[in-house]
Amino acid sequence: MKLVIKRNQFYDVFQNTKVLNSFLLFLKDQNLKFCLIFLRQLVLSFLLFGFLFVCKTPESKGVSSSIETPRYLRLNYDVVYDTSEGVILHETGKLFARGLFYDFTIRSSENQFGRIKASSYTEDNQIDFKHILTVEELNSLQNKQYQYFSMPNDSRASVLTGIHNESCYIRWEWQKESFIFVFETDFKNDSGKNPVLLGKEFHENIRKGLRIF
């Protein structure tokens, strides 16, 4: 009787050991599968990261370094500037809470104004707005002249022209409701034209391109 009990106990131990070994082998297989899956995902992740790194356009301060040539520049919700032939966009971004700015060059062989900065901002930011010239440079402008031109809704645009450091500065400014729109340029006047005439041409180019809704 004792011998039978011992045999049964031995058989139980053997069976338990067999089950345990099977379970360990199962875990080993599962771990191996998990490791292979994890390794595969890791390799794919590295390949994807490498691909994105190679193809990603370099960025600097939120401004794309790729050359953009848009035709339309949205200044706010109901004013758009149609550049007609498109522009080379050097920089763009938000200005204060609700404004925008664009630094661009018109894509035309007839362009005589060089780089232009177009800005839009609201009255409450008027004190903080900075022109492309410093306050000292604006105060030292020579042959300073103001011109005024009619705009929609009985409004008018002002054009300031002046000379500094052998460069011609032109500023076009117009207000629609609470928004103020400014176009500025500072360039070498190789044509020798009178700055007042250049200011008038600058206004005509801007007025022709403005789409007011």
TrEMBL record:
Q: Which UniProt keywords apply?
A: Membrane, Transmembrane, Transmembrane helix
Q: Does the keyword Transmembrane apply?
A: yes
Membrane-spanning residues: 34-54
This chain's protein is named Uncharacterized protein
Q: Which organism is it from?
A: Leptospira kirschneri str. 200802841
